[in-house]
Amino acid sequence: MVTPVARTWFRYHGQTFRVAARYTFGESERMLDTGAVTRTRTAPALAALSVGTFAIGMTEFVITGLLPDIATDLRVSIPTAGLLISGYALSVVFGGPLVTSLLVARSRRPVLVGLLAFFVLGNVLSALATAYPLMLAGRVVAALGHGSFIGFATVVAGDLMPDRRSRAIGAMLAGLTLSTVAGVPLGTLLGQQFGWRATFWTMAGLGLIAALATALFVPDSRPARSTGQLGAFRNLELWLALALTACAFGAVYAPFTYVAPLMTDVAGFPVGALPWLLALFGTGLVLGNVIGARAADRWLMGTVVGASVAMLAVLLIFPVAARSPVPAAITLFVLGVVAYATVPGLTNRVLVAAGPDGQNLLASSAAVSAFNLGNAAGAYFGGRAIAAGWGYASTPLVGAGMEALALVLAAVLLARRSRSTLDRDLLDDRV
């Protein structure tokens, strides 16, 4: 027997909040009412999720700085060791939606903790690896936890702040941006000083901390309805949103994958400058994430389109700016800002295309796959341009081509929504 919903109003730092509670025999369940999430519950929960994304982001990208050491230790070539990066990305692309489909009907907090445990196991396997196959297996296991964790965490974060969903998603994704600023440089330094295995042990420890924090601070929720989630993929608008995500964000990885030779061989920086240049780019990512999250809550597609236009301009300028150190460094920073200004909006755009309630976990996981597919595509096409003899300075132009395609997709998406729902995303509608 369930008692009627009890509502309570209270004051917190000058603002009024409403809490809705429903009680059963010896069991209480917290219900999310619009605008009714207390700050005391929201901040620790978002912080716990952000620690998880920090560990995941560090695991995905730190290996680039450790690749030569890993290749030497495991007695494989650099290109073969490079498959540890592409193999991870492909596991996220294809494994994330598969794992999510198996877990979609389960309560979210236990799923998040379990996925982090999977992530920890993958890093432990990598740290213990004495042969390349085991190392690759560890990367695949960690990647399977990656895509599904961010997919679930995106929906959970949005539930915590339903009236400011993009901002909540941005807060959750802040861990990814911070991993670029601090995690990757520190992980690389740790590996250089104590061996690459120490870095993987550290990432396993971070995953364990994230799992404990998630268990303690993230509110549990009832299982999502699995029926109808797959049906959203019959909607062309969802596929357009996923393609837009892949092209718009993947564009930055055409030059960023080759940022080391771009900044040293072309711009003229010494090799020792790379850590602070990467930190500079990462700082731009953090700033862009904050700006994009706040703006997307008011102008969803306006923010995506505006940031994409800015990124197109930066990518077109980059080949010229890369001829001199100072302009190259400034351009790298600005590229980070405009690149991550698109991320909260792109993620929310996918969720909105999948359903107005933002609860489609399969679509959320597919958005993570789209980001990683875009990253892989940008790296591949940038590499083809270099192999064709066009030089490292051509990679931003490859990214510009991908960004131009993203803007075409955005125009098609806006035109479809304008005809079907009279959406005013470019004006002042709240999503």
Automatic annotation (TrEMBL):
Identify the InterPro entries for this entry: MFS, MFS_dom, MFS_Efflux_Transporters, MFS_trans_sf
What's its membrane topology?
Multi-pass membrane protein
Q: Which residues cross the membrane?
A: 45-63, 83-104, 111-134, 140-161, 168-186, 198-218, 238-260, 266-287, 299-322, 328-348, 360-381, 393-415
Q: Where in the cell is it found?
A: Cell membrane
Q: Which UniProt keywords apply?
A: Cell membrane, Membrane, Transmembrane, Transmembrane helix
Task: Spell out the Pfam families in the cross-references.
Answer: MFS_1
* Domain Major facilitator superfamily (MFS) profile: start-end pairs: 45-418
PANTHER family annotated for this entry?
Answer: CHLORAMPHENICOL EFFLUX PUMP RV0191, PURINE EFFLUX PUMP PBUE
Descriptive protein name: MFS transporter
Provide the species name. Answer: Actinoplanes palleronii
